[in-house]
Specification:
seven-stranded mixed sheet, binds pyridoxal-5'-phosphate
């Protein structure tokens, strides 16, 4: 017999989550997660699945029948999108301007696709001209790009133009909306997006575990006409259709509690109204931006591509990103993050998402950041941040 480990009761620290996600969870979502479990085929759960799908359609602004929460984190909905749409031998066009574009490329490669690239530097969006040129050169079957690049704080503008280029070349467009759904303007049908996927732990302020995915008819036709099944059984949408489609038959045991949570998070979106929610993110994150700029720091993304849900701020002189991040966590129980890939060590990533996108959390962040920068001896004047934010609010 092995000895039973002596592990104490769970007492997590009480953090304020202002990194790239997970974000602050709304108390109503936490309450929904502590309600009794029912079976994944219980009639009450079937109703709740319908409601969750309707709420997801609203958040995505689509009437796509094929709109579901995928069991797993954002990477699961991402892999469901790419792994089902990309068939062996397909050409997949991927962006080079961020960490998550790289992940799209890697998933497409593993699905048997030939990956080609459209270039833009980290910290900039894709230019429609460059996308059109890449289409002319490579004639891809599927084009993937990121609407809200969490690694750089860049919002991809011109989404309808990019999907138009794809459709003129008979290709399908997959859009990563992990850090935009529920926080930044996104209109799947108006923008003619074939497939959009997201995660619940960003602007929906829900714990990770059930991740939004929507597919239009063109995309679903391709999935159902595949010559060979997708390489993943778990994420095979033609099989998942049995559970989330009309039959409601067993495929795998849905993460019931995560679906409860997502439903409640989406109810909050519907109550607030999507446009009001997009406005709130812009207004509150605008205060955050004004605050850090008043302290002498610089945003990484140009104003035209600024992503309110993820504010990438250049690390000021005299400090390292790690020092600031550690100080905030230790002294203020506040989580932010550093840069990834090409921007590693160069930026601080500050989330302003969902329930965290409130004046009080941003004010706390600015007070804490000023404390950290002053104590660590950064080459900035950290006073005045809160005041600038207050004016901007
Ligand atoms: C833009 C983007 N895509 C995909 C993902 C992957 O999501 P997850 O970490 O939930 O698997 C993330 C996570 O941060 C993301 O920011």
């Amino acid at each position: 017999m092995y000895d039973a480990p002596d592990v104490g009761e769970l007492v997590p620290p009480n953090r304020t989550l202002m990194g790239p996600g997970p974000s602050e969870v709304h108390p109503r979502v936490l309450r929904a997660m502590s309600t009794p479990l029912v079976g994944h085929l219980d009639p009450s759960f079937i109703d709740l699945m319908d409601e969750t799908q309707d709420l997801l359609r609203y958040a995505f602004q689509t009437d796509n029948e094929w709109t579901i929460p995928v069991s797993g984190t954002g990477s699961a909905s991402m892999e469901a999108a790419i792994g089902n749409l990309v068939e062996p031998g397909d050409t997949f066009l991927a962006p080079t301007n961020g960490y998550f574009g790289d992940r799209m490329a890697e998933m497409a490669r593993r699905a048997g696709g030939d990956v080609v690239y459209v270039d833009a530097p980290w910290g900039e969006p894709l230019a429609p001209d460059a996308v059109a040129a890449a289409f002319d050169e490579h004639q891809p079957d599927v084009f993937g790009f990121v609407h809200a690049e969490t690694s750089t704080g860049v919002r991809q503008p011109d989404v309808p133009e990019l999907t138009r280029i794809a459709h003129e070349h008979d290709a399908l467009a997959i859009v990563d909306c992990v850090t935009s759904l529920g926080g930044v303007e996104l209109r799947v049908d108006d923008w003619d997006v074939d497939v959009a996927y997201s995660g619940p732990q960003k602007c929906l302020s829900c714990p990770p575990g059930a991740s939004p995915l929507t597919l239009g008819d063109r995309a679903m036709e391709k999935v159902l006409d595949r010559e060979e099944p997708s390489r993943s059984w778990y994420l095979d949408l033609s099989l998942l259709e049995g559970y989330w489609g009309e039959d409601r038959s067993y495929h795998h045991t849905a993460p019931i509690t995560n679906v409860y949570a997502l439903r409640e998070a989406l109810r909050l979106v519907a109550e607030e109204g999507l446009e009001a929610r997009w406005d709130r993110h812009r207004r509150v994150a605008g205060g955050l931006k004004a605050g850090v700029e008043a302290m002498g720091m610089e945003m990484n993304a140009a104003e035209a591509f600024w992503l309110p849900s993820l504010n990438a701020v250049r690390v000021p002189g005299g400090v390292t990103d790690g020092d600031v991040i550690d100080y905030l966590l230790e002294e203020y129980d506040l989580e932010i993050a550093g840069g990834l890939g090409d921007l590693s060590g160069q930026i601080l990533r500050i989330g302003c998402m969902g329930h965290g996108a409130r004046e009080e959390t941003v004010s706390y962040l600015l007070v804490a950041l000023a404390g950290a920068l002053e104590s660590l001896g950064a080459d900035v004047d950290p006073s005045g941040g809160v005041e600038a934010a207050r004016h901007a609010f």
